[in-house]
Amino acid sequence: MISVLSTNITSPLGFTTEQNYRAVLSGSSALKRHEGLWGLPEPFAASLFSEELRAALAIDGHTFFESIAIRSIREALTHTRLDVASERVVLIVSTTKGNVEWLDTPHYYPSEAAQAIAQAIGLTTKPIVVCNACVSGLSAQLLADRLLSEGIYDYAIVVGAEVQSKFIVSGFQSLKAVSEEPCRPFDIERNGLNPGEAAATIVFAKTSDRESWQLLDGTTCNDAYHNVSPSPQGDGLTKAIDAVMTGRDKSRLATVCVHGTATLYNDQMESRAIERAGLSDVPLSALKGYYGHTMGAAGVLETILTMQATDDGIVLPTKGFTEPGISGKVSISSKPKKTDKHTFLKVMSGFGGCNVAALYKKGAGSKEQGARKGAGSEEQGARGIVKLEKTHTVRLSSKDEKTLTDIYKQEIGDYPKFYKMDFLSRLAFVAAETLSNSPLKGEDSLPLREGWGGSLILFNHSSSIIADRQFLSTISDKDNCFPSPSLFVYTLPNITAGEIAIRHHLKGETTFYILPDKDETLMQQILEATLRATGTTSAICGWVDAESETNYECELSMYNHT
Amino acid sequence: MEQLINELKLQIKEALNLEELTMEEFDENAPLFGEDGIGLDSIDVLEIIVLLEKQYGIRLNNPAEGKAIFQSVNTIAQYVQANRKK
To answer: Residue A532 has what pLDDT?
Structure first.
């Protein structure tokens, strides 16, 4: 449990949390239809910074992505007396594509961008980037909770940021997921998401006081179903919500702030998960009608807005919603609702099959909501008790004689999907296969365990650079612009974890981190904190980095409950 | 028609990286989805939509209308023959 010291939202609707909240309350939205922008043949609606706002926010010597992150953090810090230069403060950056517009320059690497942001703010510790598709903003907060609870740091600055570009928008268009009109979450007429730009910051402290918002708990579960389509019945999301809410009083929830991207599949799946988790009577709010899908920023931004609204005694209305178009029983409205409750749930789901549920409460010390009654579900109930040991390690690198395809053909051979994966996924897949096969050959160890206790924690430096280059090549020729949907999917590095989760039915936490270098100590800290905080009984963890097809390195280890 | 079917098979095999499916095994009447058929998924369909636009100038924006078209290579070939612009 950690508490919120201060927040900021920097978006087309305002440069502070208060400005943004007032704008949303008055029904404002920055969503606009754009035609011909960036040379894209198809129109789309998006929430973008105008030229004037861009000029006002840009910082010399920084990319626009870095600039909005820096502006957001700086404003949030003005409300605190935090000594940012202290070695007790860590920066966690949540983004899906960061500086992707700077591909093939040093700015491209997400950890370089994070270091540029950290330096501008005056931080002295190594920043951590969370790159977990749409759930990144919640994954980043869960990491903050773990690092602070473990005593590794005392303060965490969590910033989520996303800048839109031809790269991202054409990719989502190739998936037929973008609407030309302002999006309509949960509505019968919904026909896709709107990309959005924003930065949002939460400064967390380890200490708790009775006045502030607390992040009480959070769980990540993987569908292990498909990398793009969510589990139709919302299996992973239902499980994540159950893990957080078991033993807690659901009637105390002011709202569930849902993901509500307004794609057909997401909203339908979410409605099923909400119903299955027994939350049909809790008012929902979906905020994409105000900001679009701000991707890496969304989990942070939507959490902050919900805190602000709950403080104000309000459940925010779902802009764009008029008539329900989902089969799960939910309470959702286009009108604001009053509430006198002080607890809410934030949920998100993303590509790579990951789902996160996080629980927040105003003020500390309430036993009913703070501590759960009884244990959680059987598998997840083992939190903090299970001791995992590293049982095996597999190393692959471009220096090896055998290529990945050689290894696949000679030692695996039964999974043709291998050939559809991008290089990074193939690398992680082959390593994970080798790992999961080896214990069976050993005498004294256990195989990888399937199910809700199986987790994947992966790290790298080069993000998804190979897939990014490949996808870019499908859109860079103006007269021959055919964005490839299958390549676009792999421009999210956490898809590697999704592939392994599907193959081995691992339904626990899957998270992808990007670091400046292969820092074994930091990786170990994150890993141990994760294993202790979750109900993991079996995990594959480690480094999976591919700068190019001739320059790669992978070192994955299996952790098992021995 | 037979030539178009073979052309489509090659293009689909390449675009979808169906490495282990030989041209002999690739039956133009086999269902594209499901375990009894070629076993394609929703992303594969989107990739075929890109292929149709790139190679034949056919724009298909709503994947739902593709249900009848994407039953087999044969049904795709019929659709392409009737609607191709290049």
So the answer is: 86
What mean pLDDT do residues A129-150 have?
Answer: 97
CB contact under 8 A, B20 and A420: no
**pLDDT confidence bin for A375, thresholds 50/70/90:** very low
Residues 6+ apart with CB under 8 A from A60: none
Interchain CB contacts (distance < 8 Å): A and B: 42
**Rounded distance, CA A235 to CA A52, Å?**
44
Write the DSSP assignment of A209-243 as a string of letters.
-SSSEEEEEEEEEE--S-SSSPPTT-HHHHHHHHH
Please give the ipTM for the structure prediction. Answer: 0.92
B43 touches chain A (CB under 8 A): yes
CB-nearest partner of A176 from B16, B19, B46: B46
Which residues of B are less than 8 Å from A492 in CB distance? none
Query: Letter for the amino acid at A387?
Result: K
Q: Which residue has the higher pLDDT, B42 or A199?
A: A199
Pair A542, A557: CB distance under 8 Å:
yes
Residue A443 predicted with pLDDT over 90: no
| Residue among A114, A12, A14 at smallest CA distance from A69 | A114
Say which DSSP state A341 is in: -
DSSP assignment of A425-448: HHHHHHHHHHHHHHHHHSSS-PPP
Sequence spans of domains, chain B: 2-83
CA distance B78 to chain A (A): 23
Q: Which CATH superfamily is domain B2-83 in?
A: ACP-like (1.10.1200.10)
CB contact under 8 A, A174 and B50: yes
Minimal Cα distance from B52: which residue of A?
A482
pLDDT at A368 over 90: no
Q: Which domains does chain A have, with CATH numbers?
A: 2-218+236-280+300-374 (3.40.47.10), 382-561 (3.40.47.10)
Q: Which residues of A touch B (CB under 8 A)?
A: 174-176, 226-229, 416, 419-420, 482-486, 489
Mean pLDDT for A493-505 is: 96
